[in-house]
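Quick note —
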Amino acid sequence: MEHVDVGLEERSYRIDIGTRLLGTLGEECRKLGLGRTVAVVSNTTVAPLYGEQVRTSLEAAGFAVREITLPDGEEYKNLETLNLIFDGLIRAGLDRGSFIVALGGGVVGDMAGFAAATYLRGIPFVQVPTTLLAQVDSSVGGKTGVNHAMGKNLIGAFYQPRFVLIDLNTLDTLQAREYAAGLAEVVKYGVILDEGLFALLEEGRERILARGKELLRSIVKRCCTIKADVVAADERESGLRAVLNYGHTLGHAVEALTGYEKVLHGEAVAIGMVQAARISEQRGLATATDTGRITTLLKGFGLPVDLPVFPFDDYLEVLLRDKKVREGGLTFVLNRGIGNFALERIEDLKGVLKGCGLAGV
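Predicted structure written out below.
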């Protein structure tokens, strides 16, 4: 088992990474001194696979377990589904001495975390991510929230978990498309912050696709370490943490325009990264070779790279609703070659979209 610490003073917590770890969840929660009643929030896909292991572990440690099961899918990451969590918490009688376990991917983690942040004005929660995307990204750092029909993650809060448990064995049941979507976030870390990681992904592509646990353990730990360092330096995204949005600006636009149903989050990020690489190249920050390496690696993992066809004005409208917009301008995360980044405020959003090949669409 590997450990990564997220250093946030009184809000610091540990990430455990390894195999066959679900059985340790109850004891770790007991060590944290969490309350005796816990609500396990999961979805209809993950609960049948891992719910019993989690329940058994928590009950063996002396916790009274309540279960809340949500429908599965990004399209359910909204206020209506969030209210299902609140209904379950209230009916189960959870009080301020209780806590929540988020068992699932990024959607479950984001919604359960937001529920924890707001129920009774805040109760503790623990992340148990079961998708690669959640393990390397969304379960770490305390971003919680839900989508709105007009934009991604427009409603939410920064609220850190007390503990993150990553059991790599849960990836064995992940569908190939979902697994590939998680690899998009891994590629992101390499492009903007770790050239060595990017090279490892290129060299080890076949082993990664085969889900070899030793290599995955190393990769997941590296991603969590990078994110932990960034979050420790800038918890609420007032500066440095914005670099983790590489590929997300246009990626979120793709998700919104497709109704959060047709394109997975990681797929949208892959598309957004290629567009960001093209913008970087146009601005002289990167070369055509850099853009080609990024595009080739994402394609090699089975990810899409082209913007879906929607009217130019539709893309522009969604970008202007992005939560990072300030006075009509938007800060884009661009890659400076591979392994470094640049943050650039861009006011000519029409020009950006035309540079991505959307002129005349």
